[in-house]
Amino acid sequence: MTVEMIWKKIPISESEVCLSRVLRCGQTFRWKNINNIWSFAIRDRIILLQQDHENLYYSHILRVDKRGTDKETFSFLNDYFTLDVKLEELYNSWKQSHSKYITVKQAEAASPFDLFTGIRILRQDPWECLISFICSSNNNVKRISKMCDNLCIHFGNFINEHQGHKYYSFPTAEQLSKEGVESKLRDLGFGYRAKYIYQTAKKFTSAEFPDITIENLEKQRDSLYEQAHEFLLQLSGVGPKVADCICLMALDKWDVVPIDTHVYQIAIRDFKYKGKKDLKTLNKEMHQSIRSFFKNIFGEYAGWAQSVLFAADLSDLNNGTNIVEAKVEVDGELSRKRIEDKVDKVTVKTIKKVKLNSTIKVES
User: Which family, according to the similarity comment (predicted)?
Assistant: First the structure.
């Protein structure tokens, strides 16, 4: 049966938000690209996205027992992508700040702020961000993505299906604190992270920790960085870097730069930060020092600027995530195809060029 899918349009350029970069730069781990459509499940719907150079197109598929509107989907996207922040203006200021540290030899190369446009910090659900970054400890993006998928499949709620792929919500603290969760997580390959996830979920659901609640986690958006950071450090599996990732990517602390040895090396190599090149571990004072160092350079959006530098240092964001075996129609027959976006290609040239197993209708 042919299904008519209604798409709405947001007039925003690819330089303001580039889906193939911002959804692959290590902030979020559950977006999929199936037949050139980006998809992601929240509690009551599947969010669907495409883009060309000048527009972002969105649609949704509601949970099987749910009614909803495209206004709700737009509201989610506006908040999630923080679309009120004008990215091009920030890029120009970051490029100018960065130029002060460029040597004559480096000046011959293109600026990372020219090469990796459209990367912005996402405003994620704090609970999902917390659990996702507990999974990130000593891990790579491909494995983190698999873990997040398994969390949803085995502990979340079924939302709906699209292009032969089933979507589930991210599990709640209640769902992850049930008896047997830790052992099941170990069976699924979470290793020592299974204990951290289960213990953290228990803290959010136990009367023994009255101050650790989802409501108080979300309230950290309005608190000072130091308070939010200390709140997060109470939780199992959360160290200084993970806490800073959550502060930046879910709690509106946009000047925070999460520090690891990779970022430390960028500071030394590209910004003349004085330190040891062969350093293997960072203490609390060094975390604070490097964060302040980057904030002095890039200002209140230092965490945003660092995300661009981090992506540029990786160079290739085509890191194995967001690749899905999907059903596609070829000459009238369904076949299996491995779908993989290349980071330096536009996800969708124009909406008319996208081939789907449904009829697309675009409404402004």
Answer: Belongs to the type-1 OGG1 family.
Query: What is the spatial distance between Cα 99 and Cα 118, in angstroms, rounded to a whole number?
Result: 19
- Rounded distance between C-alpha atoms, residue 310 and residue 119, angstroms: 11
**What are the residue numbers of the active site?**
241
* The token pair that represents 66 in the structure block: 């749910």
Question: What are the start-end ranges of the H helices in the chain?
Answer: 19-22, 70-80, 87-99, 112-115, 126-135, 141-155, 173-176, 181-187, 193-205, 214-219, 225-233, 240-250, 261-271, 284-298, 302-314
Structure tokens at 195: 């204990």
Write out the CATH class of domain 4-79+323-363. Answer: alpha beta
Give pLDDT tens digits for 53-99. Answer: 999 999 999 998 888 889 999 999 999 999 999 999 999 999 999 99
Cα dihedral across residues 208, 214, 217, 219: positive or negative: negative
The pLDDT tens digits for 164-191 are 999 999 999 999 999 999 999 999 999 9
The segment(s) of the chain belonging to CATH 3.30.310.40 are: 4-79+323-363
Is the separation of the CB atoms in 178 and 133 below 8 Å? no
First to last CA, the chain: 26
For the chain, count helices (H), then strands (E).
Answer: 15, 10
CA 152, CA 170: separation in Å to the nearest integer? 5
Provide the Cα torsion 101, 103, 108, 109; round to 10°.
Answer: -50
Distance from the Cα of residue 169 to its chain's centroid: 16
